[in-house]
Amino acid sequence: MASLDTRKKLVTAALIAPAALWLFFFLVLPFIAMVGFSFGERGAAGGYQPGFTLEHYANLGARSMAYVNTLTLAPIGSLLCLLIAYPAAYYLAVKSNPNHRLLLVSLVIIPFWTSLLVRTYAWMYILGSRGIPNLLDMIGIENVRMLNTPGAVLLGIVYGYLPLMIMPIYVSLEKLDRRLLEASADLGARPISTFFSVTLPLSLPGVMTGVALVTILLLGEYLIPQLLGGGKVFFLGNALVDLFLQSRNWPFGSAIAVTLVLIVVIVLMIAMRIAWRVSGTRQVDLV
Amino acid sequence: MRAFITSVYLFLYAPIALVVLFSFNAGRNASEFIGFSTQWYGKALGNSFLMNALWNSLVIGLTSALLAALFGTMAALAMERMSPRMRAIFDGLFSAAIVVPGVVIGIATLVALVEVFNFVNPVLTAIWPGEAAPKLGLGYGSVIAAHGLFSMALVTMIVKARIASLGRDIVEASSDLYATPFTTFRSIVLPQILPSIVAGFLLAFTFSFDDFIIAFFVAGSKTTLPMYVFASIRRGITPEINAVASMVLAASLLMIVGARSLMRERKPASSETE
């Protein structure tokens, strides 16, 4: 007879087994294979041939524009999101009528869970030559180009990820103890100094989570630069699609994919470190 | 402040409204609204390529979300019982499944599967007794596996959070009253975590239904709905695509409203027991 303890261990193992196998075969193993590919050689007809070379890593500069765009537009986009999201979250958490709060918050999050593809293509419509530029043309401002510019990509980023930035900030502002605000007012602080010395510092964990989440998701973005940046504002995601599905240079693509994961990990670690400083916990809530 | 929040809502919903509006356009011009018509919905529903893509998306979404809900819940229950070190390892792996960009998940799955196929297919041909040996390739299986990975991690996170907020005392009371662990699970734990499992399932389905980039890499010749929409957009925006987009929006809206109301349900009850 198995003891109670052994039986408990067996049940635990049986419960985790499918997930563990899935993680191993579709996350760990593929990632190891990809790292292996990044040191391999390009096949004669594209694809991959076994080998060992560092040339793909030495050659990363050939895609420097994708690195530059990703590493500038992702953080800038994330900060632009923050600038709009903070006042919005503040209104929802502090100023809005509590009876309508749930509805108002749901209305913010719903767009995030609807198709990013559809929401992004709506902007192709608005920014395209028959959209706003057409209206500007009617009032005499001619030949304005909006689509396929870095500005269009930033607009798409702010539009696509604003809900995701608002949510964590809203949550941290909502949890804020109202008595602290009253105490601050009772002690003679003006609303503006209460905001800067009480509200803002206490909402920083939410701000951190939002900025980290949005930045990390943006680093791997493909659709927004593809649809709103045309062929001109490439991100690493676009470079990867190009390398794997068009030019079929798998080893070079793998090298870029490995660096993209490293960038994500570094950003995440920085975020955790700052979160630790700000709130005394390493936790950056990702879901 | 009010004006600001109003403009945020306008910003969020105006583009969506525009797409829906033009899906009802009588003309085929994509920028001039000349009259109301539902003809494009009819055309979309009669388009066999489109319906095929929709079917593929439904099969992939339902299968991957079901597997993710089942295995994700099991994993969340297992993690409750693990040593802190093992739990940290699985926490790390699940977080990685969520944080690693979709484009990398797609590539890594593609690269690994092609390697496996190159190895397995010749062996299969050699040992197959009949004439034509089955050939492993990209398709439903690869997309379901890649979508399921993210979805399972999502379900695990959601269910784990729910389990953490459960009252311990009621579980202990149940075993004090000589209920078997299974009875305790079925009559005490499961009813309380079920809404979060269903919410996880709906979110997983929504994710799979909307995902473009992972499917783009690993779907092979199976076109999913987002892949179809993406390809059509590149050929030019038509009222038919607006109609498809509106239907996609309506479907994900239904899913998300369902998921969120389930996640919210029973919260007051749990705060009573705590």
- Proportion of strand residues of chain A: under 5%
Q: Helix proportion of residues of chain B, in percent?
A: over 70%
Distance between the termini of chain A: 42 Å
In DSSP terms, counting alpha (H) and pi (I) runs of 4 or more, how many helices of chain B? 12
**Quaternary class:** heterodimer
Radius of gyration of chain A: 24 Å
Share in β-strands of chain B: under 5%
- Morphology of chain A: globular
Number of DSSP-assigned strands of chain B: 0
List low-pLDDT spans of chain A: none
Biggest interface between chains: A-B, 80 and 81 residues
Main β-sheet of chain B: number of strands, strand sense, barrel status? none
Number of helices of chain A: 12
Radius of gyration of chain B: 23 Å
Sketch the topology of chain B as an H/E string, one letter per element.
HHHHHHHHHHHH
Average pLDDT value of chain B?
87
Q: What form of chain B results from the Cα inertia axes?
A: globular
Question: Topology, please?
Answer:
The complex is a heterodimer of chains A (287) and B (274).
Chain A: H1 4-38, E1 41-42, E2 48-49, H2 55-58, H3 64-95, H4 98-113, H5 116-127, H6 132-138, H7 150-174, H8 178-186, H9 191-219, H10 223-228, H11 236-246, H12 250-279
Antiparallel strand pairs in A: 1-2
Helix pairs in contact in A: 1-12, 3-7, 3-9, 3-11, 4-7, 5-7, 7-9, 8-9, 9-12, 11-12
Chain B: H1 2-23, H2 39-45, H3 48-80, H4 84-99, H5 102-127, H6 140-164, H7 168-176, H8 181-210, H9 213-218, H10 225-235, H11 239-264, H12 267-273
Helix pairs in contact in B: 1-11, 2-11, 3-6, 3-8, 3-10, 4-6, 6-8, 7-8, 8-11
Account of the 3D structure:
The complex is a heterodimer of chains A (287) and B (274). Chain A is mainly alpha-helical and 287 residues long. Helix content of chain A is 75%, strand content 1%. The two termini of chain A are 42 Å apart. With 274 residues, chain B is an all-alpha fold. Chain B is globular, with a radius of gyration of 23 Å. The two termini of chain B are 37 Å apart. At the A-B interface, α1, α3, α4, α5 and α7 of A face α1, α3, α4, α5 and α6 of B.
